[in-house]
Amino acid sequence: MEKVSFTRMDEGTPEEYAFLHKGEVEFTKGLPDRIIGALINLDNTLSGYRITRLQHSLQSATRAEEDGADKELIVGALIHDLGDDLAPANHSQLASTIIRPYVREEVTWIISMHGLFQMFYFGPKEYIGNEIGIDKSLRERYKDHKWFSSCDKFCRDWDQMSFDPDYPTKSLDYFKPLVNEIFSRTPFDPKFVGKAEFE
Ligand SMILES: [Fe+2]
Ligand SMILES: [Fe+2]
């Protein structure tokens, strides 16, 4: 079989669905390469900063690693702005959705919330309530959350710091083995994700 013959899903045969499933399993194996491709695309987003979004992502991951972060957080730092081109209004959530099946819940939460926490670092204090609508205090809503300090650290020490063209940033090639490892995991494996409450 090269293609199914059905034109509507409810008319597919068990053989056709077995055939499609096999193709899906094969396609999923290419996920790490597609993540790398999406990272490369970040080289062409958001002008005006002194470095590209790809360089920012690599620098965030480098700082995380230098700081002793574990693999999941390093890869989280690497992909945290993957949503910038397709989801400019909620880029954090897009990135967290991508990594969610492969890492512990804490990492997913940090990536999902980093956009809101990051507002705290947008410029000097007098920017509060300015005309572009930045509210530095939004993160205070989560001040009692168990992962407040982890997300605070992610934003304070890695994300907001990583706009420096002179920082010794590691290359995308350097991080490829980590990307391969994390995104080749079985999705929603309780061993990594914890209790499977997401599906
Ligand atoms: Fe971001
Ligand atoms: Fe960022």
Describe this protein's structure:
This protein is mostly helical and 199 residues long. The chain has one domain: Hypothetical protein af1432, CATH 1.10.3210.10. The protein has helices spanning 14-28, 31-41, 53-66, 71-79, 91-99, 105-118, 148-159, 172-183, 190-193. Bound molecules: fe (ii) ion (FE2) (2 copies). Residues 80-81, 91-92, 114-115, 118 line the site of one fe (ii) ion (FE2).
Keywords:
single chain, 199 residues, mainly alpha, 50% helix, elongated
Q: What is the topology?
A:
Blueprint: H1 14-28, H2 31-41, H3 53-66, H4 71-79, H5 91-99, H6 105-118, H7 148-159, H8 172-183, H9 190-193
Helix pairs in contact: 2-8, 3-4, 3-7, 4-8, 5-6, 6-7
The chain binds fe (ii) ion (2 copies).
Alpha carbon gap, first and last residue = 31 Å
Instruction: Sum up the overall morphology in one term.
Output: elongated
Q: What CATH architecture label applies?
A: Orthogonal Bundle
The number of helical segments is 9
What is the H-and-E element order?
HHHHHHHHH
Structural class of the secondary elements?
A: mainly alpha
Strand tally is 0
Estimate the mean pLDDT confidence.
93
The CATH topology annotation reads as: Hypothetical protein af1432
Largest sheet: none
| CATH superfamily grouping | Hypothetical protein af1432
How many structural domains are formed by the residues?
Answer: 1
Bound molecules: fe (ii) ion
- Percentage of β-strand residues: under 5%
Reading off the top of the CATH hierarchy, the class is best stated as Mainly Alpha
Q: What's the helical proportion of residues?
A: 40-55%
